[in-house]
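Below is a filled-in request sheet from our internal design queue. Each sheet records the structural input a requester submitted and the sequence that came back. We keep these sheets so that new team members can see what a complete request looks like end to end.

REQUESTER: design group, bay 2
PRIORITY: normal
MODE: inverse folding
CHAIN LENGTH: 267
BACKBONE (tokenized):
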């Protein structure tokens, strides 16, 4: 486990470095480069068709660091290790969970920029070949990662921001030589149009201008146990003086045992 945690600790740096790289060409589909009988190129262009490994299933959070900030709601006004602005501190000092409840805002701590840090389980499935769905126990939230071009809006009306925002996804692959199938890589997800929420449930805010970038990497140890490392970077010019970067770890579960979605709670 110490080895796995050490690997996770390196992922934040790797994910940030990956921002400056252009995405590599997608993994070749079955039969690629064989001439006659090669699979149609379109088969490898979907998110599911490009996937270098199976990311679906049930995953449970490993609380290996920041225990007191993740398992418990931090005290009012506490922003340890979060680079907040003076404007953000004013909002933090005015945080009142009772008012959030009364206003129907109990899910402020369960938006896309905050929900992945909460303890509990994830359930990841393919909703379609181009949409990866992620459900959380915490707050009973559903996130959808769309590969390729976003669908055209049904009308000229601009949709209102939501807790989980609008997420676009792509697979990023390492530069490789040879023609074998690609079995490594990371899922890169960019989320915008988020409803203002909390990075932590004690009222540390992020605004509607925030951009969330996430890097999902699957790791497998010598006992074939799979882990998922999710490095998140929140860039918010209104409430953060610099991007806030954290890596969260999850362990693959054999089945749905223990899956217990719970509603949002303001406290």
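RETURNED SEQUENCE:
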């Amino acid at each position: 486990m110490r080895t796995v945690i050490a690997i996770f600790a390196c992922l934040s740096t790797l994910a940030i470095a990956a921002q400056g790289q252009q995405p590599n060409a997608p993994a070749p589909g079955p039969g690629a480069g064989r001439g006659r009988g090669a699979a149609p190129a379109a088969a490898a262009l979907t998110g599911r068709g490009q996937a270098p490994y199976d990311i679906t299933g049930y995953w449970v959070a490993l609380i290996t660091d920041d225990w007191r900030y993740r398992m418990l709601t931090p005290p009012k006004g506490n922003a340890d290790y979060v680079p907040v602005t003076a404007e953000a501190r004013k909002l933090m000092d005015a945080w009142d969970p009772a008012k959030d409840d009364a206003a129907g805002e109990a899910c402020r701590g369960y938006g896309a920029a905050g929900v992945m840090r909460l303890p509990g389980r994830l359930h990841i499935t393919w909703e379609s070949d181009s949409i990866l769905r992620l459900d959380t126990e915490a707050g009973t939230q559903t996130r959808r990662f769309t590969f390729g071009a976003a669908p055209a809006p049904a009308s000229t009306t601009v949709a209102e921001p939501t807790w989980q925002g609008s997420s676009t996804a792509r697979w990023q692959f390492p530069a490789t030589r040879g023609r074998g199938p690609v079995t490594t890589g990371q899922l890169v997800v960019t989320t915008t149009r988020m409803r203002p929420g909390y990075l932590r449930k004690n009222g540390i805010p992020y605004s509607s201008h925030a951009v969330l970038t996430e890097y999902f990497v699957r790791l497998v140890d010598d006992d074939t146990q799979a882990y998922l490392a999710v490095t998140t970077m929140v860039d918010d010019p209104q409430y953060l003086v610099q991007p806030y970067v954290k890596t969260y770890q999850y362990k693959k579960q054999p089945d749905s045992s223990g899956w217990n979605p719970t509603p949002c709670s303001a406290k």
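SHEET NOTES:
- The helical segments are 2-18, 47-50, 67-70, 86-93, 97-102.
- The chain has one domain: 2-21+54-150+160-173+184-253.
FILED BY: M.R.
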